[in-house]
Input
Amino acid sequence: ESNISRYNIEFIELGVIGRGEFGRVTRCVNKLDGCVYALKRSLRPVAGSAAERAALTEVYAHAALGKHPHVVRYYSAWAEDDHMIIQNEYCDGGSLQQKMENGPLSEPELLLLLAHIADGLAYIHSLQLVHMDVKPGNIFICSGEGQPSHDSDDGYDDEEVLYHHKYKIGDLGHVTCVSSPSVEEGDCRYLPKEVLQEDLTQLTKADIFAFGLTLFEAGGGGALPKNGQQWHDYRDGKLPELPNLSREYYSAWAEDDHMIIQNEYCDGGSLQQKMENGPLSE
Ligand SMILES: Cn1cc(CCO)c2c3c(c(-c4ccccc4Cl)cc21)C(=O)NC3=O
Output
C-alpha cells in the first residue's frame, strides 16, 4: 500500500502484539511525543455493514468514555488505504488471559481485579453504555513500572508498590447503549441466557455476569463451556467451588433469586438485647 500513510509517517512499528481475522495489533512509538501506543489496523469495513457500525461504535464509545483509570484510553482513529486504524493506550502487562496461562490468580490479585474492573464497569454504565464483551482477553494490565518509584520513607512499603499494576477494560468493539434495540453478541462463554433469549432490558447485568464468570475463570474455575448442559448449569448458579480460596471469600452468594451473606457469629447477642436487662454499669 502507499507509504504516505499517517501510520508510517507518525509511528515506528516495534512489533506485532496481536493478530486476528480483524487484522493486527502492533506496539508503536509515536515520533512526535515519543510515547508507545497500541494500534489496531483492520480492513476498512464495507460501507453500511454491521462491521462498519461496530467500528464506528467503538470509536464513539472511546470518545465518550474519555479518560478513566480502569478503561483503556483512546487517542485517535483514522482511515487510510482501505484500512481503519485505532490508536489506544498501550498496556505493557499483557492481557488477563495471558496472565491466567501461568495458573489461577492469588486471592489478593482476584480482589484487585474485582475492584479495578468493577470500577471501570461502573464508569461505563454511569454513561448509559454497556461493554457486552467482558472477558479475560479484553482485560489488559498496565504494570505501572514507569511510575516514580516510592522510596521507603514516604509511607509506601513494598506490599503497596508490589500491587502497583492496574487492570483495565479494553476492546470496546461491542459497546452499545443500555436502551439499545440491537446487540452485537460477545463471546458465548460469558453470555448470560437473557441476552441469548433477546431480553435486552437489563444489559448492565450482562456485563456483571460476564465479569463474574471472568473472576471464576481467573480464580481457577477452568475452561468455560460454550454450550450444552454445563452452559445452562452455570447460568443456574451450579458452579464448582474454587479450591484455593479462603472461606472469607465465600461470604456472599446468590441462589434461586436470593442473596445470602455469611458473617461471623457473635454468641453474646446484641447490645439491644443486653439493655433489656437494664442500663449498663459504668
Ligand atoms: C492483542 N492486544 C495485546 C495488547 C497489549 C497487551 O499488553 C493490546 C492492547 C489493545 C488492544 C486493542 C483491542 C481492541 C481494539 C484496539 C486495540 Cl489496540 C489489543 C491488544 C489496546 O487497546 N491496548 C493494548 O495494550
